[in-house]
Amino acid sequence: MSKPAREVAIAILYQSDKILLQLRDDIPTIVYPGVWGMFGGHIEPMETPLETMKRELLEEIGYVPTSLYEFGTYGTEEVVRHVFHGPLEVGLEQLILGEGWDMELVSRGDIIAGQAYSKQAGMLKAIGEPHRLILLDFLQA
């Protein structure tokens, strides 16, 4: 008997024509180490995906948009991703990175190419494929 898929909530935060991504810590024991992804995290018992999204954004960047909208749900046998989107209404300098190695507003071209430059790492880093595919769907919507 297989264990149920874990559920997470993730956010597409946009400003102008760019999307805010988090460079995950480069720790081999975490999922997708050292790659760009969206901010978010695991849904706790008795929490709705939206409650999770707001909690995770506060924990990870100290910011929650005034509006968050459901974009869709992407599921595999291992994980169900509840995806939200909303505007980033403040500058990067007002965010406090509480989790991850770096954060950056990345362009459509970066997302299509599957990589973006990290000032902290001093190099191009890959965008995690599951998140990249979701972002491509979002950009086409």
From TrEMBL:
The keyword Hydrolase applies. Pfam families: NUDIX. It comes from the Bacteria. GO terms for molecular function: hydrolase activity. This is NUDIX hydrolase. Residues 4-128 form the Nudix hydrolase domain. Keywords: Hydrolase.
